[in-house]
């Protein structure tokens, strides 16, 4: 939906394409729409980035137990590396780091699945020991929030499309990627639950035994996420730097000053997110809350709202009804998920 909206606006203004979420918000609802959209994007991407810091910190703390360092210490150790990576300006330049991160993640997930299968079948496992359908429906909102959080990179959609050499292939590539990742998540979750049952932790790598392969998995995932984090920060930097350019546009020395401010702002963002991550008590609850609120707004509410606004008069009745269902479902999920998380805490 978001790509269709961007293409519609781009066709209407050939001299200046609407490339960002803020542009879509402005064309749909004026200045308030731009600011609201950009606030949601910034907060959502910040929340997802904080989750990355927490995941890395908890895994490194588990790997290096007995060293006398807290989880927050490992988080702050990442700050210089992430600041350096955040200074890389374009997504295309970050592609090699992203590929390396993907390799680390695939290898690590493969080892985790192998460990899960060995544990499940090595203990005389039977499917009767696992509950397929639970009577505890109170946990469904938490699970749904975690499921939506798994796709927290939704805010990168337009940025990734803009970075493609042939944008026409993006919808097909997006659908293939989405389907493939969904299957991987299902397989990963199924194997983890089959191996550990009700003892499965919110970060499944913390369930693994302390042997060389498990430690390699945890370190590999940490390295992968460390190289992925700068990509998550891209929309935040894009919005902040757009505001800086507006402020400095009347300055004759603006080019040099813009570069200095860009580096400083990116460093401040990384440090601020690391500080926030050091106060997160539990990864699972935090991730579910982010998925239930911010990710739901990005994934369901915003696309349906923009699509209805920009295409409303030309849409058939069934399409309007579908968009309305997506919009209302996203709002309900966001409010109920927030309530459930707060009550649960």
**Euclidean distance between termini CA atoms:** 35 Å
**Number of helical segments with 4 or more residues:** 11
Per the CATH scheme, the topology name is Amino acid/polyamine transporter I
* Mean pLDDT over the residues: 79
Form type:
globular
Subcellular location: Membrane
GO cellular component, one term: organelle membrane
Protein name: Amino acid transporter transmembrane domain-containing protein
Transmembrane segments: 35-55, 133-160, 172-195, 215-236, 257-280, 286-308, 320-339
Structure in a nutshell:
The chain has 11 helices and no strands. By secondary structure, it is an all-alpha fold. It is globular, with a radius of gyration of 21 Å.
Explain what the structure shows.
Helix 2 crosses helix 9, helix 3 packs across helix 8 and helix 4 packs parallel to helix 7. The chain has one domain: Amino acid/polyamine transporter I (Up-down Bundle). It has 345 residues and is mostly helical. It is built from 11 helices and no strands.
What are the defining features of this structure?
345 residues, 11 helices, globular, mainly alpha, 77% helix, Amino acid/polyamine transporter I
